[in-house]
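Reviewers asked in the last cycle whether our approach scales beyond single polypeptides. To address this, we selected a multi-component target totalling 1091 residues and predicted its structure end to end. The input consisted of the following lines:
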Amino acid sequence: MTVHDMKHADSDSARLEAVGGRLSRVDGPAKITGAAHYAVEQQLEGLTHAVLVGATIAAGKVTAIDSRAAQTAPGVLAVLTPDTIMELNGASDWLGNPPTQATYSPLVREVTFSGQHIAAVVAETFEQAVAAAALVKVWYDETPAIVDLSDRRAGDGIPIDAMTKEWGDAEAAFAEAPVRICTAYNTPREFQAAMEPHGLIARWQGDELTIWEPSQWLDGMARTYAEWFGVPFENVRLVSPYIGGGFGSKALALAHSAVAAAAAKMLNRPVKLVLNRPQNFTSYGGRAATRQTVAIGADREGRIQSIVHRGVNETAVDGMWVEPLGSVTSIMYATPNFSSKQNVVRVNTVVPGAKRAPGENPSAFGIECAIDELAHELGIDPLEMRLINYAEQDPHAKKPWSTRQLREAFAAGAEAFGWAKRSPAPRSMRDGHQLIGWGVAAGTYPVRRAYGEAVVKILADGSVEVESSSIDMGQGTYTILAQTAAETLGVPVEQVSVKLGDSHFARAGVTGGSRLAGVMTGAVHKAAGQALDELIGLALSDPASPFHGLQANTLHVRDGRIASPRGEGPELSIAAFMRAVGRDHIEARGDTVPANFTPEQRYNNYTTIATAIPHTEGDYSRHSWCAHFVEVHVDEDFGTVRVSRVVSALDSGRLYNPKLAESQWKGGIIMGIGQALLEEGIVDRRHGRIVNGNLADYMLPTNADIPDIRTISVGIPDPHSSALGGKGVGELGIVGVAPAIANAVFHATGKRVRDLPITLEKLI
Amino acid sequence: MRDFSYLRADNIEAARNAAALPGAMLLAGGTTLVDLAKCGVAEPATVIDISHIEGLAAIDVGADRAIIGALAKMSHVADHAGVKSLFPAVSEALWQAASAQLRNMATIGGNLMQRTRCPYFRDPQNFPACNKRAPGSGCSAIGGVTRGHAVLGTSEACIATYPGDLAIALVAFDAEVDLGGRKLKVEDFFLAPGATAEREHDIHPGEVITAIEIPGSAAARRSTYIKVRDRQSYEFAAASAAVGLELEGDGRTIRDIRVALGGVATRPWRARAVEDALKGKTLAEDTVRKASELAMQGAVDHGANHYKIALGPRVIARAILKLGATA
Ligand SMILES: Cc1cc2nc3c(=O)[nH]c(=O)nc-3n(C[C@H](O)[C@H](O)[C@H](O)COP(=O)(O)OP(=O)(O)OC[C@H]3O[C@@H](n4cnc5c(N)ncnc54)[C@H](O)[C@@H]3O)c2cc1C
Ligand code: SF4
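The resulting structure, written as C-alpha cells, was:
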C-alpha cells in the first residue's frame, strides 16, 4: 500500500541491501513520525460509527431488548439487534471446511460467554454511539456457566485423537524406571494485548465491499466477507497497510467485523467500528488456559526411558480450539517410549485463538520444567541433562533433522552466560536480600511452509516495485522483501519500493506460524529473477538495445547498471536502457505454486491453510531451535521476581536480516518474561467474566522489567526449509522462556512454581 | 460517557462557587476523572476545569515545613530538590506511582482524590452492586476476585483498597490538607468505609483543595518509601510502607519513628502500634521485625489477599532497617 523512502533508513553495515544485511526497518521513520496511517485512520466522507453492546452474563438467553431510548437518542441512525440485523450466510472455516450452518448472525440471542455481542448502535459520531449504547436495555434468562478448567462440572472433556502420539510402551517403561518424576503444570488464559485494538471501516459501493482493517491474512479474511455477503471474492478489497501488533489475533474476520460490514450495507454508509480495550479481551480469543502432567522415567545416569504426557486445554461452548500440548514434548528428547494424549474442555468463553507459538509455548513449559525437575532429582546439571538426552533425529517422525543447531545453541549460550560458574544447590547464590537463580530451557518451533506469489516491476526510471497482499505487522516484511528484490536484480535497495497490505495485489496466505518470510522471500526471489531474465533477454534481442549484436549470451546487472560479464560493450543504467528500448516497465509475476495446481487449488492455497506443507514432509523434519539462559533475583521477603539477565542462542537457519531477526527474538523473549511473571486473565467465578480486561490491570512487562537481552544466532542455511535457507523467527523466541525463568526461580528459592504466572504470593 | 457542560474557572472563588452546583466535578490533570468517566463511574453534569488557576502550583519547601500547591504536578514535586532532601519519602512515593506520562499530567490535589482500583467499582455495566458507587446496592467484591483488596479497615459494606502512594507518606508525617476555609490532618481527611462506603473524603460540596502542608521533622528528613509489586513499574502497591526514623545521639536508640502502610488498607494507614513498640528501643533486626507484625492487628483477609498480612510487616521492617543502615 505504501511506498517508503529508503534514504531515511538508518544503516550500520556495508552491504545492507543484500539478503543478510542489517538494514533498518524501512517503515520505521513513517511509524515514528506518525506518517504511517493505520487501517481505521482512513478519513472517509459520510463515515458513521458503531458501538457494540455486550452480554453481561456468561450463559443463558436474551429474553428481551429494549432499544427505544437508544433509537431516539441524538445522532442515532440504527440500533441493530439479533432481530434487526441482516441475515448473513455461513462462511467456511480457515481450513476450508464448508459452513456448518447456512446462516450466520454476529449478534446473538443464545449467550455462551460474557461480553458476547448482542446489539450495536450506529450513530453520526462516536460519542453519540457510545452514549446511546449505554441506553440499550437487555433482559436475560441466565443459566449456570462453566467458568474454567477447574470447574468440577467441566469433567474430563473431549479426547482429541489427532493429538495422540505414542511409541513403545510408555506406561510400563515409566513404571519400571529406577528414577521417576510426575508433575503438573498450568498456564492461565493469556491475551495478545496488541497496542492497536481490533477494528475496521467497512464501505459498500454497489456490490463491492472495501474493508480497512488490521489483518494478518487479507485473502483469508476477504474470502470470509465474500461468503458472508454472497459476493464474488474479487468484489471484496481488504486494505491493511500497517498492523499495530497481531500476535496471532488478527488473522480472521470476526463477529464484530461482520457487524460493521452488515451495518454499512444496511445503512448504505461507511461504518467504523473499533473495539474498546475491555472488548479486546472478550471479542476474540487469547491463549487457552492449559493443564499438563508430565511423567518422566529415567535410569540413574539420567537417560530417559519413558515420557507419559497428558494435556488439557479449554475451548468454547460454541467453538473448537486445540492448543497442541504435546508438540515439543514429543520431539525435544530421545526416548524409547512415549505417550501423549490431549483433551479439550468446553467452558463459557469466547473461542480461544492463536497467540505467539500456540502449542509449542505451553508444551515447552511442561517438558522443559519437568526435565529440570528430573535433573535436580538426579543431581545432574540441567544443561548436561539435556545433552545426555539429545535427540539426534526426530523421535516422533523418525526422520533426520534438516538442521538442528541446538547443541551449538547450548554451547554458545552457556559460554556467553558463564553457566560453568553456576553453583548447583538451590538457594546457594545471593546478593543481600536477593536470592539469585540461574535457569536454562530449550525451545523449538516447526518450519511451516506454503506456496507464495509476488509481482516485481522494473519501471522506466530504473526503480523497482514489489507487490504482495502479504503484510507487515512490525516483523519487517517491507524491509526483507526490498532486500531480496535488490539482491536478485542487482539494484541498490533505495531503488526498491515494496507495496503490501492490499488484497488486490498478488495473493498471499496467512502471516502466521512464522512462515511469511520464508514463503515471500522465495516468491520475490523468483519473480525478481523472472524480471531480470526478461530485462536481459530484451537487452540482447531488442534491435534498439545498445547490447544488441554483442557476442554475449548473458549480461550482469550490478548497482543498477547493466554490463556484459567480460566488460566489452557499453555499460548503462537500467533507466538509460529502458529509454533506449522505449519501454515504460517490465513486469513479472512469480510464484512457487506447483505447476499442476488448478485455479481452485490456488485459491485455496491463499484463502485457507489446507495446502500448507507439513514440516515432516519428505526426508526431513524441519524446526528452528533455541536455548535460553536466564538469571533472576528473587526478594526473599517480598517474593518479587525480577529477571536480571537473559542470554539466548537461537537457530533460525539463515537470517535474511539479522537486525530484524534479533528484534523479533527479543520481542518473543520479552513476551515470555510477561508470561512467566505477570500475565493472567483473572475470571470472576460467579459471573464468568474477566475482571482485569484493561492495560492497567492485565499486567504486561514495562521497560523497567526487562534487562539487557543478548541473542546469539547459531543457525546455518537450511536448504530443506526455504528457498533462501531461513527457518522461522517470529514465534521461536518466546518458546522456552517461561520454563527457563521458572527453573531459575527454583534455583534461587528451592521452590517450584508450576502455575503461571509466578506472582509474589506464590513465593512468600 | 454522557454529555456534560464544561466550565473553566479562572480563580479559586469561581471554582468554589461552581463546585457547589449539583453534579459538578473539578478537573485538574484529568487522569482519574476522564478515566472514570469512560468507565461510566463518574457522570459529571458540569466539569469545572481548575487547571488554569494561577498560583496553585507552587512548591515551597523549608526545614520547618513544605507547602505544596494543589495544582503542582506529581513529577515536579518528585523532582524538587527540597522535597528530595527534606522529605525523601514524599519524593519516593511520587516517582514510584503510576507512569512518567501520568505523573506529568496528574496534580497533587487530584492525587489525594483518586478512587479505588477495585475492578467491580470500575465496571458498573457488568457489576451493578457496589456500595461505594451506589449506596446500599451491596458489594460485588466480597466473594469475588479479591487479590488486591484490603485487609485493614474493611467493613461489611466495602473492602476496597486505598490505592495511592503519596498519601501514605503524608499520613506518616502528619501532613495537613488545606481546603481554603478549613485545614485538617490528611489522616482524618480519608474516611474508613464503615457503613458509608460512598464517603471517602471529608470534603464538602464547594470545597477545593488548595494545598497540602507537611511539617518538617528529623524523621521526615530520614525517611523512605518502599513499594512492593509484581511489576517493577506502573503498578499499584501490593504493599508499601512510608517510614521515617530519628535516632538518639548513640546512633542506635530510636527517638522518633513514623510508620504508615499502603496497598493493604481501605485508607492510608498509620501504624502507631509499630511506632509505640519501637520508640526508645535499640535498632535491631529481630526487634524491628517483631514490632512490624503489630501493624496487622485486626487484619481480616478474603482469601486471595491473605498474602498481604505477611507482606505488610516485611515491607515495614525492610524500610526501617534500610534507614537504620544509612546512619
Ligand atoms: C493507569 C493508572 C495508574 C496509576 N498508578 C498510580 C500509582 O501507582 N500510585 C498512585 O498514587 N496513583 C496512581 N494513579 C493515580 C494518579 O496518581 C491519579 O490519577 C492522579 O494523581 C490524579 O490527579 P489529576 O490531577 O489527574 O486528577 P483529576 O483526574 O483531574 O481529578 C481527580 C479527582 O479529584 C478531584 N480534584 C482534582 N483537583 C482537586 C482539588 N484541587 N480539590 C478538590 N478536588 C479535586 C476531581 O474532581 C476528581 O474527582 C494511577 C492512575 C492511572 C490512570
Ligand atoms: S469493595 Fe467497595 S468498591 Fe469494591 S465492589 Fe465492594 S463496595 Fe464497591
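The pocket of iron/sulfur cluster (ligand 2) is lined by residues B 116, 118, 120-121, 130-132, 139-141, 158-160, 197 (CB under 6 Å). We regard this as preliminary and will revisit it once experimental data from Aim 1 are available.
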